[in-house]
């Protein structure tokens, strides 16, 4: 009896082991490298939720090339060395070949280098420093989002069209903030040299006191304020500006962040300002409405801002894999180059020369009444076509990736 039980147990264990191995072989992992702790935890979590939902949609449709996809959360702590160390461990121990992230251009630069060195694929849905697809471009890195040039060009086009003549700029003092501001100024000068930059201010990441900056802005008396700020830095800027007496409206990269608007807790501080992004809940496309309905049914909340961005980018990657017909890295790279993806925010095209997605931008004014939230939020946006804000390949600084 004991021998029979032993052999029965052993057989069961062997079956379980074979089943586990078979399941692992039929699963392709995506490492989602985000700050999942610290001051920017909420940013990382929302990005992860978008990737996670994309994976769920893919798996519900039979998987990708017959395999299930699994999203693995990796806490970057917003530190390049931490991100690459953890990514390297996954590569060596779990054979993970696909990585994505949206937070911190410095993390993006380090991950891009890691991907090129080890022939992995790394894509971003949020890291916008233009240099990543410029001088730092890599055949293993894809940007499935706008960059600081195209994003700023869209805002410059809007400012020029509206006829403003005095503009103030305030940004975080690191590569992304500076590149975004420089691009805005460059495009604005091309469109209308008579427009003056009356203030150009930079502050440290994680700034707590914006009073000195608000005072300088008010002293310069601008008609509009441009900011590429994000996260808590954007929240505190808006939250402190109104009580200090600033009445001028903002035009910002990430003003459609519902968490930020709720945290400001003063609709009067945000209503009338304008958001510029590649994804908004209010984009009036059928595909977007279907996406929102499906996500809400599954999660019980709306896929605003970051969730929509990371979802779209992940589905873009999946389309490249499907086109390649294999998960082989070199084949997927080749398939993604020149691929057009028609998604929830319009048609996106992955340019072969630098792996920078050419995408339309959307601009919308924040209004008091929203169909999605009890607080103010962006209204129906207008689209700025990708071709109107594109930077020619020869001007990016990338030596050219497509052979």
Task: Explain what this protein looks like in three dimensions.
The chain is of the alpha/beta class. The chain has a domain at 151-277: Rossmann fold (3-Layer(aba) Sandwich), CATH 3.40.50. The protein is built from 13 helices and 16 strands. Strands 6, 7, 8, 9, 10, 14, 15 and 16 form an eight-stranded mixed sheet that branches. Strands 2-1-3-4-5 form a five-stranded parallel sheet, sandwiched between helices. Strands 11-12-13 form a three-stranded antiparallel sheet, with helices on one face. Helix 3 (80-94) packs parallel to helix 4 (105-118).
Shape: globular
Gyration radius over CA: 22 Å
SSE order, as H and E? HEHEHEHEEHEHEHEHEHEHHHEEEEEEH
The overall strand count is 16
What helical percentage do the residues reach? 40-55%
Q: Helices and strands: which structural class?
A: alpha/beta
Please write the CATH class name of the domain at 151-277: Alpha Beta
- Unreliable stretches covering 5 or more consecutive residues: 1-24
**CATH third-level topology of the domain at 151-277:** Rossmann fold
> Count the helices. How many?
13
Mean pLDDT: 92
Q: Indicate the proportion of strand residues.
A: 15-25%
Main β sheet profile: 8 strands, mixed
CATH superfamily of the domain at 151-277: Response regulator
* CATH architecture descriptor of the domain at 151-277: 3-Layer(aba) Sandwich
